[in-house]
Write a structure and sequence with these properties.
214 residues; alpha+beta; Maf protein; two-stranded antiparallel sheet; 6 helices; 9 strands; nucleotide metabolism; EC 3.6.1.9; hydrolase
């Protein structure tokens, strides 16, 4: 039976991560109000938000009988200096964060909730990666914030975009920092009796068609 993966996220980086790994997801944004969840632990917050996003999308789906439909919800936060940092509120907030983060390290937590819609089963977990930030200059901070990129991402940084040069190194899975851990996704699929290769697709020459890999 074909397997359909629905990504409950508007993040282009998460979609590109899946596509680079041979998985072509459908995208359906959850619309969950992230401010409704309050907790003191970063791991609990990102997992609860991932769960809410997945469940919101599941409630809107009408899966086909001849297809196995999965929904993947993800959420990321940065634990830094005893605080939980999601997306910055504005440029001033992003600037203040980078002035504190430069030359130091934090832990990026990404919650994942994978739901098998028709079976009513789900698997969930958090992936965590230590991020060591470069000791960047005031000019680099100002220029980076002006691009707008840090305003759109948890922790006010990326490793797969303009912020990449400002991360010295990481300890853990790089895809966790992008917001979707591929090794963790593989383990969650196994909990639902699936292999990640079941989701692989092959694009024909010229992008004319997409067919499931055997």
């Amino acid at each position: 039976m074909p397997v359909r993966l629905v990504l409950a996220s508007a993040s282009p980086a998460r979609r590109k991560t899946l596509q680079a790994a041979g998985i072509e997801p459908d995208v359906l944004v959850s619309g969950v109000d992230e401010s409704l969840v309050v907790t003191e632990r970063a791991e609990d917050l990102c997992l609860e938000l991932a769960r809410l996003k997945a469940q919101a999308v599941v409630a809107r789906l009408r899966p086909a009988d001849d297809q196995r439909t999965l929904v993947l919800g993800c959420d990321s936060v940065l634990a830094f200096d005893g605080q939980i940092l999601g997306k910055p509120a504005d440029p001033a907030d992003a600037t203040a964060r980078w002035e504190r983060m430069r030359g130091r390290s934090g832990v990026l937590h990404s919650g994942h909730c994978l739901v098998d819609v028709k079976a009513g089963r789900q698997a969930e977990a958090v992936a965590s990666t230590v991020v060591h930030f470069a000791d960047i200059s005031d000019h680099e901070i100002a220029t980076y914030v002006e691009t707008g990129e840090p305003l759109a991402v948890a922790g006010a940084f990326t490793i797969d975009g303009l912020g990449g040069p400002f991360v010295e190194r990481i300890e853990g899975d790089p895809s966790t920092v992008i917001g979707l851990s591929l090794p963790l996704l593989r383990r969650l699929l196994a909990e639902l009796d699936l292999r990640i290769t079941d989701l692989w697709t092959k694009v024909a020459p010229g992008n004319q068609s997409v067919e499931p890999l055997g």
